[in-house]
Amino acid sequence: MATLFEKISGNDAIFNGSEYRNDALLFNYIESARFADDHDIYSDHKNAIILLPHYGSRVWIWTSSAIKSDTAKLIDICRFLRDASISKPEIYLKHEVSDHFSDLYALASLEYGYVVKDEFSLAAFVYEGGKQPENDEGTIIHVDKNNPDHVRLVTEFYRACCEEFHWQDKLDKKVQEYLDMQLYAYVKDGRMLANAVIGGHTDHYIRLKSIAVLAEERRKNIGYQMCCYIINRILDCDKKPVLYTHVKNAAAMALFKKSGFRMHDKIYLIKTDETN
């Protein structure tokens, strides 16, 4: 059966509605992705599916809340993902439709060749405070991938994190990925003890993508210092920081609340795997 979804641009009228705009303030990633060069958007003039080829299998689905009772439309979305031949899709969608979509997708996947591998929620935070105090115990630098010393710091940091992140077989690739990002490093005594990545710019928001601290340096206030520094740099751009973190990551949830972020909602993530 032919899908009702057609390719559209990031300026399509579907993105002008108040429901989408309210979500877009929360789902900063969706808003930035739809204007990026490396994306494809499909719509049935009511719902949108944003594919991110750069990430291979990452799919953002924006839907009206009314889709909860529209099983036929949910099936259309499942068919679209099947026909698009996306390998192991990672599906992000609004939390209030997650139970309906997840249950249906689990059933539909039997026909379409996927199984649900993992399901969890991401907490979506928006910063609500002002400038934060900055600590000068360590030096925070903006990493330059053309600076050999910066490359050394990043490489040593992720080599130390290899086992925790399960990156033993892909260290070089991961180091290069992070060097290509907007990466800040907390350096003390010639070592990188922590870093932070920002990205996903919109007219009003900048996303804090991640903060990582060496295992032996945790609970020393370094993550909080990094968070405050990045918050201030984003505020310097006259924008608000936003971020997403796993709701079961208690340490991250506590850090971001301490730093002045307020949880607005949750995003549901379905990870899948191929059955054969």
Structure commentary:
With 276 residues, the protein is an alpha+beta fold. Helices cover 34% and strands 31% of the residues. The protein contains eight helices and twelve strands. The chain has a twelve-stranded mixed β-sheet, sandwiched between helices. Helix 3 (71-83) crosses helix 4 and helix 5 (148-165) packs across helix 6 (171-179). The mean pLDDT is 85.
How is the main sheet built?
12 strands, mixed
Sheet/helix structural class: alpha+beta
**Large-scale geometry:** globular
Average pLDDT confidence is 85
Oligomer status = single chain
> What's the helix count?
8
Strand order of the largest sheet: 1-2-3-4-5-12-6-11-10-9-8-7
User: Percent of residues in helical segments?
Assistant: 25-40%
Contiguous uncertain segments of 5+ residues: none
Rounded to an integer in angstroms, the radius of gyration calculated over CA atoms is: 20 Å
Number of strands: 12
Order of helices and strands: EHHEEEHEHEEHHEEEHEHE
